[in-house]
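Input sequence (66 aa), recorded before submission:
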Amino acid sequence: MFADFGEPATRPDGKVLAIGSRDGLISQWDLETCKRLDVAAADPQEAVTQIGFTPDGKKVRGWARG
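Predicted structure, token format:
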């Protein structure tokens, strides 16, 4: 797993890590297998920072465009 930008966030259950990137993507990683789960795009596609999960862990949100 390689994080090139932003601070990562861990899902409330501790099983998934989300990382924002400079190209507007949010990647999610399974912390047990270290495999990528899926990719979500930011809207607008700007650098994504300040990643966080909702309290129920069903959604991940990031801050784009300051």
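Checked by second reader. The first strand starts at residue 9 and ends at 10.
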